[in-house]
Design a protein that fits this description.
Length: 335
């Protein structure tokens, strides 16, 4: 009697322990903060790999606290739809462009204009200083997403299917230049003198291969990672936009976190950007040689002619009308 009671007791304790063991991981998983990431970046690109740095950094600083789910190749949300998804609460994190922001915060269009940001160091100084603080505050209020760090996407160059002589914007007349699909992007293509054609990033390779477009513009590391060099013959070094994207989090997700969690998430976003920026800048410096080896012609246009023309187009546009007074001068004066 005594033994069987004892045995039953032991058995009950044992099965409770087994049950607990089965339930505990599920319970723990439920309490993890879900952070879904969506980006059009291709896996072999630094700004795709940076998300693994984000995830690992967060796992180190807050073990078991966050469930970071990385979705590349625009597999979760279409390029450009991420900010709306974040505002709705269907997505927590993404890297958003100045063009995405300018749709809802028109004054941000100053960063979509060609030949304004000078180089990656200038970009970091502008966004990590008072201008960035002011602008990001407006972004957070108007878009329900908060930028956490500034990622150097690279300096955009024109990349053509067939080589041609391009010295000034007039030489791009009639060239069907693919741009991402928003009016802010198309305007940049127009300012370059081309005929802009909207297409999502994921469709560019095929567009170049089949000839539905004559060219595209992207920084050299993106041309390498997405293999556009396989289906194009020329790169024209217009250097028309020192492009940046911003690791941003939905305000819904961010405001639900405690102060320590917020700080860790921000630090992880900064580590991810630093990883991208370092590798991207280094690679960008080496790629002209690589593309030449791949048989591409790398041409130098009259960059001053492009600069003058593009700056004039923007300054005379409706975009410039909403740039806060003195902002351009402050950007130029940031050293
Ligand atoms: C592109 O579609 O050309 C672009 O470079 C635009 C950027 O804002 C960004 O969306 C980028 O694509 C993707 O991350 C893919 O590299």
């Amino acid at each position: 009697m005594k033994t069987s009671l004892l045995r039953r007791g032991l058995l009950a304790t044992a099965s409770a322990a087994v049950l607990m063991g089965m339930l505990l991981p599920a319970a723990q998983a439920q309490t993890k903060v879900l952070l879904r990431v969506s980006t059009p970046a291709v896996p072999d690109d630094w700004h795709a790999k940076m998300w693994t740095v984000f995830k690992d950094t967060l796992e180190k600083s807050a073990p078991g606290e966050f469930d970071v789910q990385i979705n590349l190749n625009a597999s979760l949300f279409k390029q450009g739809t991420e900010p709306a998804a974040m505002a709705r609460g269907n997505l927590e994190l993404s890297s958003i462009s100045a063009f995405d922001i300018a749709k809802l915060v028109p004054e941000f269009s100053v960063f979509t204009a060609g030949y304004i940001v000078r180089d990656p160091a200038h970009q970091q100084k502008v966004f990590n200083g008072p201008i960035g603080t002011e602008m990001f505050k407006v972004v957070s209020e108007k878009m329900e997403v908060t930028p956490l760090s500034t990622v150097y996407l690279g300096t955009r160059q024109v990349n053509l299917r067939e080589a041609r002589s391009v010295k000034t914007p007039a030489d791009l007349k009639g060239v069907k230049l693919r741009m991402p699909g928003s009016k802010e992007w198309l305007f940049l293509g127009e300012a370059l003198g081309a005929t802009p054609t909207p297409l999502a990033f994921g469709e560019v390779y095929l567009g170049l291969k089949t000839g539905t477009i004559d060219g595209q513009d992207n920084p050299l590391p993106s041309v390498r990672a997405a293999k556009f060099y396989e289906v194009t013959k020329q790169i024209v070094m217009t250097s028309h936009l020192v492009d940046g994207i911003f690791i941003a989090i939905s305000n819904k997700a961010y405001s639900a976190m405690n102060a320590a969690q917020k700080q860790k998430v921000k630090a992880a976003a900064e580590a991810a950007a630093a990883y991208n920026n370092e590798n991207r800048i280094k690679e960008e410096g080496q790629l002209v040689e690589f593309f030449k080896q791949q048989g591409l012609q790398v041409a130098t246009p009259d960059v001053d002619a492009f600069r003058k023309s593009v700056q004039t187009v923007y300054q005379n546009s409706d975009y410039a009308k909403v740039w806060p007074k003195g902002l351009l001068e402050r950007i130029n004066a940031t050293k």
